[in-house]
Specification:
By secondary structure, the chain is an alpha+beta fold. The protein is 21% helix and 27% strand. α5 runs parallel beside α7, α13 packs parallel to α15 and α14 runs antiparallel to α15. The structure holds 2-acetamido-2-deoxy-beta-D-glucopyranose (11 copies). One 2-acetamido-2-deoxy-beta-D-glucopyranose binds next to β45 and β46.
């Protein structure tokens, strides 16, 4: 029924288009009369590119010369034109666009009247129209560059006239390149079919001083990315995001993955200024920029997801090196005080943490507060003592949060002001606000920033030695300015609500350094922070960053997260999405980080702990009320606290499984389609995902949810993690099974044929391992698993129906086999070894003659 109604609706929409097309014929006439101001070139559509034809919806009465500039554009391909509000047909005609009388919206022709072209062999392109739809002059000349970066990836760059272009549009074994010069667009195909990889032909190209618009399409089928997993839009709906780091959104990257006919390809958009990205239901992607000298697209052709990720990562300078400590629990505290004495008082008052954790930062503002103090004051020395007594002595790692901003009243500022590295507004160093403190902002790509960093490190050493750590969190480095609110200004003719919001709570767009306005490089602020401070912190430094670009490889923390079920769901989406785009280590604060937490969030907070137990990074860091297990005991209940502690213990027991997955260069927490790339039932899944290739994890993401439905892809059997009950595709309805869950259930399934190492004890020296072995039904099938320890040791496990074999590489006595748990399709059993077996001795264990065994 409803499908039919939708169909009728679609038909009506279509009919509207036909009407519109007729009504717009005056525009077409104006266009042809050569009398309209602003039109430079009129011959543009006489050279017609047949490729374009199939994009259009054309009715039977269309004459051939109307074919190539039509308003009969499918709803899902309509790119808005001009200011969205208060449009009339007259205003719309004036800016050479189509008007939809039903919706009162103005949209671009297809192809758009706004394009660039060249009628010679030159690689510079002129604009079709003098003015943009916002009545700004368009750049007369722009350039395009195409640089193949490998057989499987290519960079396409649109830039202004400050540099000329070089076009290398060659065919490789993996893609064919075509470039059309009038109008200008590029298209890439897979070489042996006409399968499209990328086209820039379907939207306008507008390039003026403060407004650029360009668009591309990767596929008309499945599109993933832009901070989401599957982007699933219908009809008129669109997805819009602004890429411009601020409090609310500092880690969405403009990256995409596309799927069609069994193959994946991907694209990274590089742009350092404010960029608004809209995805239409057709999967057409529109880019709008307020700034810039260039927009770069980087296409990778796959054809598998793994290859796309590798091709993306190939261009990074360095890679992540994981150690098991990364997977421990990291504790930090946030708040508004920058007064060292107060921060220390609060810390002293706090109950000792009574759960297992790996690192403690004491307080996010500790560094800024310490910088505000003299290095020889009694408070500073009390700080050193506290770090020593309460963090180091109990064998925890001290991790220091460093914010980019510098307190205006500090010695550090006085000593570095003359370096000229701080952002200026109106000729003086710009003062922003961080919790009511005046702060100034260094520009980390400034020529003299190394001197600043040396002074910063000196100040740190004076205050923290001998406890200056090797772990650092570069916090709030989008960077945060709590005083700035963006307003509409004349200069930006296009400033959507989304852009206005994104350009607030961070440095004013017009603050400048070296006479360059900061908003032009805004999206690289965190990147330069990491790149410049990182090496100065020493070779062994472990760094997490709150804001990054695609080129960083360091783990990422998201900040300013309100606790809510929606944000819990979004947290999963964000981590899964980052895993696909080269950032497998993303952390979202457990139970949120802002002060909105109350005891009513208890059951959500327990669920968040359960989810975090198998997430890439486990970080508990929030404003008050704190939500570590110790604080939860008094804030919510002892019950919640004990659930949270169990989740943490569970995490520590799986730490080496995590280390093994990442050590094998695979993302840890990843969407189902990463492992089942050709099963489109998995594409939209978020509540269930894979942790490594062997664990399928499920979480309810709605309040009071007592049932979860789980999709099990055809093929393998899946064993419920705790009890070993087996499930598979055939057991459910088309693969879907339904389970009843309680708020404290961690639901996971082990894939048949796998072996998962679990650490049973907390002993730092000798670790007792339990192997969870999921055997298949088939006599000949072997289960396999691995354990990578992070100190160069690795162990391989192979199990037949009757026997386990271990082989080691660089192993030593530090890991021993204690227990073996065996899952079979119709039975489970446990073998407790009489004596621990050293894994370094490559033991074999026969399942049939063990005395302490239920097998
Ligand atoms: C739309 O136009 C009306 C009348 O011309 C005006 O009152 C209203 O403020 C305008 N709305 C916007 C959003 O510009
Ligand atoms: C647009 O629609 C209005 C009614 O909503 C109608 O009065 C008007 O004549 C239409 N304009 C054109 C150009 O068809
Ligand atoms: C680039 O374009 C601008 C404005 O269109 C013009 O003023 C400038 O001279 C051009 N520069 C070069 C190198 O052509
Ligand atoms: C590259 O492929 C395109 C079609 O995809 C074709 O038009 C073009 O001629 C090819 N170029 C070369 C040099 O073979
Ligand atoms: C791709 O280019 C090659 C030559 O480089 C050509 O033989 C082949 O036909 C092209 N494929 C398509 C689909 O145009
Ligand atoms: C810039 O500073 C001057 C004096 O220092 C002041 O008169 C002027 O109002 C300031 N302009 C802005 C836009 O703040
Ligand atoms: C910077 O831009 C803001 C608007 O966002 C404006 O109010 C302010 O005067 C500008 N400052 C200078 C020095 O241009
Ligand atoms: C999966 O693809 C098939 C055919 O390609 C299609 O019929 C089906 O609707 C798709 N399912 C989903 C969930 O997209
Ligand atoms: C473990 O298996 C992997 C491949 O699965 C292999 O590369 C590695 O060399 C093996 N290590 C040992 C110690 O056998
Ligand atoms: C095992 O080897 C690692 C280095 O590979 C070393 O750090 C550790 O102390 C050793 N453990 C034992 C028990 O020998
Ligand atoms: C267990 O069985 C295996 C092979 O069947 C045999 O080699 C081994 O000696 C037996 N071990 C014990 C303790 O009986």
């Amino acid at each position: 029924m409803s499908a039919q109604r939708e169909f009728i609706q679609e038909q009506n929409d279509l009919r509207d288009d036909y009407k519109i097309r007729k009504r717009t014929s005056p525009i077409v006439n104006v266009w042809r009369s050569r009398s309209t101001r602003g039109i430079l070139f009129l011959f543009c559509f006489s050279i017609v590119v047949p490729v374009l034809v199939y994009y259009f919806l054309i009715d039977n009465v269309t004459t051939s010369d109307e074919l190539y500039d039509t308003c009969a554009v499918d709803e899902t391909y309509r790119v808005p034109c001009g200011k969205p509000e208060n449009t009339t047909i007259d205003k719309c005609n004036k800016i050479h666009c189509c008007f939809d009388n039903t919706t009162k919206r103005c949209f671009h022709y297809l192809p758009s009247k706004y394009y660039y072209f060249s009628d010679s062999e030159n690689q510079d392109y002129g604009s079709s129209l003098v003015q943009s739809p916002f009545f700004e002059a368009q750049l007369k000349t722009v350039y395009l560059s195409i640089n193949p970066t490998s057989d499987k990836s290519v960079q396409i760059m649109l830039h202004d006239n400050s540099t000329t272009g070089t076009i290398t549009c060659t065919n490789t074994t993996e893609y064919n390149c075509t470039i059309n010069s009038n109008p200008l667009f590029v298209e890439f195909y897979r070489p042996n079919s006409r399968e499209l990889l990328l086209t820039t032909a379907k939207g306008p190209m507008i390039i003026s001083d403060h407004y650029w618009e360009w668009s591309f399409q990767l596929t008309d089928e499945y599109l993933f990315g832009l901070g989401q997993t599957l982007i699933d839009l219908s009809g008129k709906s669109t997805l819009t995001k602004v890429i411009y780091g601020n409090d609310k959104d500092h880690n969405t990257l403009p990256n995409f993955l596309a799927y069609k006919n069994g193959k994946y390809h991907g694209l990274i958009v590089r742009h350092s200024g404010p960029l608004e990205i809209t995805v239409f239901a057709s999967k057409l992607v529109s880019l709008k920029s307020l700034s810039g000298k260039k927009i770069t697209l980087e296409l990778s052709v796959g054809p598998t997801i793994q290859e796309v990720i590798n091709q993306f990562n190939d261009n990074k300078a360095a890679n992540l090196i994981v150690t098991p400590d990364i997977f421990g629990v990291h504790v930090c505290r946030e708040g508004s005080s920058l007064i060292l004495k107060d921060i220390l008082e609060d810390f002293k008052k706090e109950q000792n943490l009574d759960f297992r954790y790996t690192s403690d930062c004491l307080h996010e503002n500790l560094f800024l507060a310490a910088i505000n103090e003299k290095s020889d004051s009694s408070v500073t020395s009390e700080m050193r003592d506290l770090i020593g007594d309460k963090i180091i002595k109990s064998s925890h790692r001290f991790s220091l949060s460093i914010l980019p901003q510098v307190p205006y009243d500090s010695d550090l500022y006085t000593n570095t002001a003359d370096l000229n590295i701080y952002f200026k507004l109106n000729q003086t160093d710009y003062k922003g606000q961080y919790f009511k403190n005046d702060v100034v902002y260094p520009y980390f790509n400034h020529a003299s920033v190394d001197t600043f960093i040396q002074k910063l490190l000196e100040a740190a050493k004076q205050r923290f030695d001998p406890h200056l750590p090797t772990d650092f969190v570069l916090s709030r480095n989008w960077p945060s300015d709590q005083s700035f609110v963006m307003k509409e200004i004349d200069k930006f003719k296009y400033l959507s609500k989304e852009l206005t919001e994104a350009m607030s709570s961070t440095l004013p767009w017009n603050a400048s350094s070296d006479d360059e306005l900061q908003f032009l490089e805004h999206n690289n602020y965190g990147y330069f922070h990491v790149e410049k401070i990182g090496p100065a912190l020493g070779d062994g430094a472990f760094i997490m960053t709150a804001s990054h670009t695609f080129d960083n490889f360091q783990p990422i923390i998201n900040q300013n997260v309100d606790i809510s079920w929606t944000n819990f769901h979004n947290t999963i989406v964000t981590i899964l999405s980052n895993s696909l785009f080269g950032h497998p280590l993303t952390s979202i604060p457990v139970c949120g980080s802002t002060s909105t937490f109350t005891s009513s969030h208890e059951s959500l907070c327990i669920r968040w702990y359960l989810m975090a137990s198998t997430a890439p990074i486990f970080r508990i860091s929030s404003d008050e009320p704190r939500r570590d297990p110790t604080s939860l005991a008094s804030l919510t209940s002892k019950y919640a606290a004990s659930q949270a502690k169990s989740a943490i213990d569970f995490r520590y027991s799986l730490m080496y499984y995590f280390n093994t997955v990442l050590g094998n260069n695979e993302p840890l927490m990843r969407p189902m389609f990463y492992d089942f790339p050709d099963d489109n039932n998995t594409f939209a899944l978020v509540d269930q995902y894979m942790v490594g290739s062997d664990l399928l994890v499920v979480h309810p993401t709605l309040p009071d949810q007592t049932q979860v439905t789980i999709y099990l892809p055809p093929g393998d059997k899946w064993f419920e993690f705790w009890g070993g009950d087996s499930y598979d595709y055939n057991l459910g309805k088309d693969g879907w099974i339904s389970l009843t869950v309680s708020e404290t259930d961690w639901i996971g399934f082990v894939r048949e044929g796998s072996i998962i190492p679990i650490i049973l004890n907390t002993d730092e020296n000798v670790k007792q391992v339990r192997l969870k072995i999921a055997l298949c039904d088939n006599e000949n099938c072997e289960a396999k698993g691995m354990l990578i320890t992070g100190d160069e040791q690795s162990f391989n496990f192979t199990s037949t129906q009757s026997e386990l074999a271990v082989t080691n590489q660089n192993g030593n006595d530090s890991f021993v086999l204690h227990e073996i748990e065996i899952f079979r399709p119709h039975s489970t059993c446990l073998i407790k070894l009489n004596a621990d077996l050293k894994l370094v001795e490559d033991p074999t264990v026969n399942y049939h003659n063990q005395s302490n065994s239920s097998c």
